[in-house]
Amino acid sequence: MSKAKLLVVDDDPLILSSLAELLRDEGYDVKTCSCGLDALRVVKSEPIDLVLSDVNMPDIDGLQLLREVKAQVPDCEFVLMTGFGSIENAVEAMGIGAYHYITKPLIDEEIKLLLDRALEQRRLRSENEYLKKELNIKFSFDNIIGRDHKMMDIFNTIEQIASTRATVIILGESGTGKTLIARAIHHNSDRRNRRLIEVNCGALPENLLESELFGHTKGSFTGALKDKVGKFELADKGSIFLDEIANSSSALQVKLLRVIQDKELEKIGSHDTVRVDARIILATNSDLWEEVEKGSFREDLYYRIKVVTIDLPPLRERMSDLKPLAEFFLDKYCRENNRNFEKFDDDAIQLMQEYSWPGNIRQLENAVERAVVLAKSDSTVITPMDLPPEVSEEVPRFVAEETSNGEILPLKEALKNPEKRIIEAALRANKWNRQKTAAMLEVNRTTLFNKMKKYGLLAE
Ligand SMILES: Nc1ncnc2c1ncn2[C@@H]1O[C@H](COP(=O)(O)OP(=O)(O)OP(=O)(O)O)[C@@H](O)[C@H]1O
Ligand SMILES: [Mg+2]
């Protein structure tokens, strides 16, 4: 680490030289000035980490100097030396932004300690600011692309609720940006300097998940060799993101309800109540209400968590975002891979707009990354050839209807029972997922169900 740069200001040449010597011995890079105006010139012209200044000087006094320095270089630390132990000056100085004051006669050890602390504080502050900036840029809305009005509404909701403690549930198909939005909520909240703990509830077996979330005491089950602090406790004063909650067991759902409602939990194997203040963000790509109807998700929990619901639309329902998203990823992956593509040609854009993107934004991101890596670098444009085959070769659906083995139907046949065929094609395109098919055809699920029954499509 480079030496910290100090500027010592005092009109008494003896004090000035002895301070300079003391601080140089401590390993600082020290400059000296015998008046305030000189000091101000130095601060303006070179990077100074800390100013140590006398109060009474012939031209501008120490307080005036402090004011000017803070106005010019706000993050420069300032320590004032007061001649008569005058507390008024000292209090005023702290109000203007001095780190501290020190009274004469000066004691070497005191000066060393104080400066050391002031510089440590400065280092921490700039480190913190750097980290915060990094995170805030990463999760600022600038990096979440969305011009579609549905996305604008979502951004507004996030801004409104970010700094509240409200539980939020994020719904959406895989790859629609649920994780990204969860992080954005945390990083736009006033808990941003605390932890965001992320747990993928779908990835852990039930019993492990419970101890992961709530912790356990030593010996509470075979294999519990020591006490374990749960994720909820780790997220205290911060946020916890529970991804894929739809499949959690009923025992876990009871505990979840309690921690959401009462901010309380008990570790496995303990009767002591632990209080936690964690902001809870949940996500799932299943239809939770369907789970409630099936009896696999508690109704009371459902109502408790759906107060703030963010429903992320699939990409195919916000196609106005396609081009900006594709361009955002083009820029990102060109930079990552040191390549120089400027844009997509019109055909490529059109193909991407006609494709249905079942894997949503993640699929688009992968397609663009692949194009950037594989496209010939003698061009600056991405063309249809560079897109993955599933995108570039798709026959637009509902224009030419296919039989179930992929042949195009003659017009006469296709006209015989268009409704059945459209529904069947849509079901096939959505891998027979009824919820997605209903959404795609913009009918409700009961209508879809009745029509499937009518056309004998239920057996599939
Ligand atoms: N609006 C957006 N702007 C820019 N990038 C986005 C946007 N939405 C999603 N992404 C990017 O797309 C990818 C997938 O998003 P994310 O992981 O958040 O989806 P998800 O809904 O959590 O998926 P899963 O259900 O599989 O967990 C990520 O790389 C994410 O950064
Ligand atoms: Mg996710």
Rounded to an integer, what's the Rg over CA atoms? 32 Å
Total beta strands? 14
Q: What is the number of helices?
A: 20
Q: Main beta sheet, described?
A: 5 strands, parallel
Biggest sheet: strand arrangement: 2-1-3-4-5
Q: Could you state the CATH homologous superfamily of the largest domain?
A: P-loop containing nucleotide triphosphate hydrolases
CATH class of the largest domain: Alpha Beta
Task: Please indicate the count of domains.
Answer: 4
Estimate what percentage of residues fall within beta strands.
5-15%
- What is the SS-derived class? alpha/beta
What is the end-to-end distance? 68 Å
As for the CATH topology of the largest domain, it is Rossmann fold
Ligand inventory: adenosine-5'-triphosphate, magnesium ion
Helix content: 40-55%
